[in-house]
């Protein structure tokens, strides 16, 4: 899966909203390759620029937002976003195969390592 979900299309759920309110994250669409089954993508220093209301078809970007999140010694906002691609399982039972469970556990473990 590629980072950003359907942010450049008509998507307006969790991932797409985050990319919309923190627009500098959109650069990752240009520089990040397709995620492999053992990869996550870390976005460091993400600043929020917009407020919003709603979700999905009720989502609406509102006013400018002044992000008062503290900065680290490099001047980056102390905000870390971890992108982990999800798989849609048409048959919910297939998510419990050894292969699929291992994939999800590896990605979850990668997120913990960064802490």
TrEMBL record:
An annotated GO BP: nucleotide-sugar metabolic process
Official protein name in the record: PARG catalytic Macro domain-containing protein
Any Pfam family: PARG_cat_C
GO molecular function: poly(ADP-ribose) glycohydrolase activity
One GO term describing the cellular component: nucleus
Highest taxon of source: Eukaryota
Domain PARG catalytic Macro: 2-109
